[in-house]
Design a protein that fits this description.
By secondary structure, the protein is α+β, with helices and mostly antiparallel strands. The protein has 3 domains: 108 residues, Trigger factor ribosome-binding domain (Alpha-Beta Plaits); 167 residues, Trigger factor, C-terminal domain (Trigger factor, domain 2); 97 residues, Chitinase A, domain 3, CATH 3.10.50.40. It is 47% helix and 22% strand. It has 12 helices and 11 strands. Strands 6, 7, 8, 9 and 10 form a 5-stranded antiparallel β-sheet that branches. A hairpin with a 7-residue loop joins strand 3 and strand 4. Helix 3 crosses helix 6. It is extended, with a radius of gyration of 33 Å. The N and C termini lie far apart (70 Å). The mean pLDDT is 92.
Length: 436
């Protein structure tokens, strides 16, 4: 009798599976005989040990594998006959009630993928972002490059201000007691770069070499050092040097330092403009894509499998821990990270992933080879050896797959834009670049 798939709730399904013990035992004995032909048992020549001895040593493992295989085949056929697409791994539980003699039975519980319906794209309202790049934007970008290559000259009597390199001795205490990492000598940092906590920078701003100060500082509740997180500290600082930044001139030497071998300042400026325009284009497209995805998500009306959400959540937790490791945060592997904090975003990502996949399939939006190559070539322009980057991505299947996924999403975005109600928005350069 064909197993009946029962709908529990939402996407959850259950099916009862029956496996005849005679069939299991027949396969078990056949495998034991096959193993016995070559089995090496102490005191017997290879293949000559008694079957009873082989069954004692190998039988349990063989029987376990045979039962698993039999259940898997019965479950697979039930799923195939019901034309279901299973999400995640089914949970199996043995059944005893109502099982006829000579059979073993199991209940398999699992989730299925939802029926994804593409919403009416013409009803979606989307914002498409545009940003212009001016000569002033290019000049300011070059100034940032100059600041990154600044040298520092000590100035007697200079009050520390943003952009200056301040060198100081400091000692912090909490409740009168010193704490790990709370003391430093001849410690340099550039004011205004956010390397130190805002209260610390505020206290140091305006100080001159030779001056000392004691001030309170409230550590944030989420500070990476648990010993002082959320606590009130007191810091004593003595400034030993205030050095003013000296920026390099925009000349041939500066151009050469930035890879312009001929020292052509005009060519350098053109290269910087091209890089800025490429970055602006990417950010504007990302904002537009965000608007498309927000609109699609708002129009989703299907449930998502809990198993997929759980898998996405676990991936995001692992990625967050890896990010903390890369930033040098201690105990990154054991810092509490409640999965609930990632739940909402994980559900969104799974739901959008299913909808994007359905859109790509129904509208035939898969990434074409020429699109993938074009995207790789565009990406490679920001490297010193673009040809090598292109060759690397085209020859590495995993890297190429990453680009294919990006192109597929771009195709979906373009397709939705062609169908939806689109409003254009001019966004200021500083706002787009996060420098406002």
């Amino acid at each position: 009798m064909q197993p009946v798939v029962e709908v529990l709730s939402g996407l959850e399904r259950r099916v009862d599976l029956v496996v005849p013990l005679a069939d299991v035992e027949k396969q078990v004995q056949a495998q034991i005989r096959r193993v016995a032909r070559t089995a090496k048992v102490q005191g017997f020549r290879p293949g000559k040990a008694p079957l009873a001895m082989i069954e004692r040593s190998h039988g349990p493992g063989i029987r376990y594998d045979v039962i698993n295989g039999a259940v898997g085949r019965v479950l697979g056929k039930a799923i195939e006959d019901a034309k279901l697409k299973v999400a995640g791994t089914p949970t199996l539980e043995p059944k005893t009630e109502g099982v006829e003699e000579g059979n073993m039975a199991f209940s398999a519980t699992f989730e299925v993928y939802p029926d994804v319906t593409v919403p009416d794209l013409s009803a979606l309202k989307i914002t498409r972002v545009h940003t212009d790049v001016s000569d002033d934007n290019v000049t300011r970008t070059i100034d940032i490059l100059r600041k990154q290559r600044a040298t520092y000259e000590a100035r007697d009597g200079r009050a520390a201000q943003d952009g200056d390199r301040v060198t100081l001795d400091f000692a912090g205490t909490v409740g009168g007691a010193a704490f790990e990492g709370g003391k430093g000598e001849k410690f340099p940092f550039v004011l205004g770069q956010g390397r130190m906590l805002p209260e610390f920078e505020t206290a140091v701003r305006g100080m001159k070499a030779g001056e000392s100060k004691t001030f309170p500082l409230q550590f944030p509740a989420n500070y990476h050092a648990a010993e002082v997180a959320g606590k009130q500290a007191e810091f004593a600082v003595t400034v030993t040097e205030v050095a003013e930044a000296v920026l390099p001139a925009v000349d041939a030497e500066f151009a050469k330092a930035l890879g312009q071998a001929a020292g052509d300042v005009d060519k350098l400026r053109a290269d910087v403009r091209a890089n800025v325009e490429r970055e602006v284009k990417a950010r504007a497209q990302a904002r537009t894509k965000g608007s498309v995805m927000d609109a699609l998500f708002g129009a989703c009306s299907f449930d998502v499998p809990k198993a997929l959400v759980k898998g996405e959540t676990e991936s995001r937790v692992a990625a967050a821990r890896e990010d903390l490791k890369q930033r040098g945060v201690p105990h990154a592997d054991t810092i509490p990270m409640p999965e609930e904090a990632f739940q909402t975003e994980s559900e969104r990502r799974v739901k959008l992933g299913l909808l994007v996949s359905e859109l790509a399939s129904s509208a035939d939006l898969k990434a074409k080879p020429e699109q993938v190559r074009s995207r790789i070539e565009e990406f490679a322009k920001s490297y010193e050896q673009p040809a090598q980057v292109v060759a690397y991505y085209l020859s590495d299947r995993e890297r190429r797959a990453e680009i294919e996924a990006i192109v597929l999403e771009d195709n979906v975005v373009d397709y939705v834009l062609s169908k939806a109600q689109v409003g254009d928005e001019q966004v200021a350069f500083d706002e787009l670049m996060g420098t406002a």
